[in-house]
């Protein structure tokens, strides 16, 4: 078919378009992890909040960072679904916060004494990873569903960011309720779960977000 | 015909369903993308291998499908060029894949390949490196020219399993024959 014919054919199909607004989509999507969080507390309470936890400055810093990441990563993911979007400052800030969270944990792990690092038990750890995965599934599915309406020109990057976004609520919840105060535990089983799910997001992104 | 010539204004009209503005906008986009793609293909020395019109048409289709993602408060050109770039990369990837397949001794036409005894032996040797299932899949799909659906039914597999199997077998063959890629 010639290009002129295609233009003619496409122009005949002109109809009012439903706009894809990243901010609206982001706010709409936020309902998914919020609902999962509420359901998690009321329906499948596997761990009860650790009230003996040391709510110190490091804990506060990590929680604030996670809270910011919970807002920023999905926002950026939706923004990225618009072709031509370039905001290196926002990308840098998100990368900075994410690495900041990991660096804080590493610093805390290097300072922790042996008894503390040994408290990173395998079974407890897996329970945390499993819970992050459980809480990420529905938000991830909703996120991919909405993102398919967009037009990401970086499916791999968008997939990774979508998966990271989906894990953020679970990580934030576990930050508060997790029984283990050990930074090694958080690094291995919380950050580990986030990274593993992000890898899954990369694969899904390449398959689902191509258009 | 719409008197507006500013692409951004045209796009705003298009989003509200204006047919004339849409035709005009698509024409402007096709001109923009044609020169963009021609320049890029020339720079990457692919202008002989990839048809610019294919890319232009793909971009027009993409614009048609994803016009809802354009934010009227932003300039239109970065949006179009991001789509064009995405589609160009796709086209180049596809071209590389088909070129690599074409470089494999003639799988689609084994009889002409068999004209040369040496080629035939090489091909047979290549086939022997595959496992039974891969060999069967390639024989059915590529040599016997059966459809994916038929092969899936015959081998009691899902259609996607057949596609993946054929793809893997072809990749393995490419490795075996060490076809040089563009990166080499």
Outline the structure in words:
The complex is a heterodimer of chains A (211) and B (184). Chain A is mainly α. Chain A is built from eight helices and no strands. In chain A, helix 2 crosses helix 3 (57-80), helix 2 runs antiparallel to helix 6 and helix 6 runs parallel beside helix 8 (183-208). Chain A is elongated, with a radius of gyration of 20 Å. The model of chain A has no long low-confidence stretch (mean pLDDT 86). By secondary structure, chain B is mainly α. Chain B contains nine helices and no strands. Chain B is elongated and about 65 Å long. Classes of the chains: A mainly alpha (211), B mainly alpha (184). The A-B interface holds A 1-3, 6-8, 10-21, 81-86, 149-151, 153, 211 and B 14-23, 26-27, 30, 53, 56-57, 60-62, 64-71, 74, 78-83, 85-86.
| % residues in beta strands of chain B | under 5%
* Average pLDDT level of chain A: 86
Largest sheet of chain B: none
Structural class of chain B: mainly alpha
Low-confidence stretches of chain B: 179-184
Major beta sheet of chain A, specifics?
none
Number of strands of chain A: 0
Helix content of chain B: over 70%
Structural class of chain A: mainly alpha
Biggest interface, residues from each chain: A-B, 29 and 36 residues
Rg of chain B (C-alpha, Å): 23 Å
List the topology elements.
The complex is a heterodimer of chains A (211) and B (184).
Chain A: H1 3-12, H2 22-42, H3 57-80, H4 88-111, H5 114-118, H6 122-147, H7 155-177, H8 183-208
Helix pairs in contact in A: 2-3, 2-6, 3-4, 3-7, 4-8, 6-7, 6-8, 7-8
Chain B: H1 7-15, H2 19-43, H3 52-66, H4 76-103, H5 110-113, H6 117-128, H7 132-143, H8 148-155, H9 159-177
Helix pairs in contact in B: 1-2, 2-3, 2-4, 3-4, 7-9, 8-9
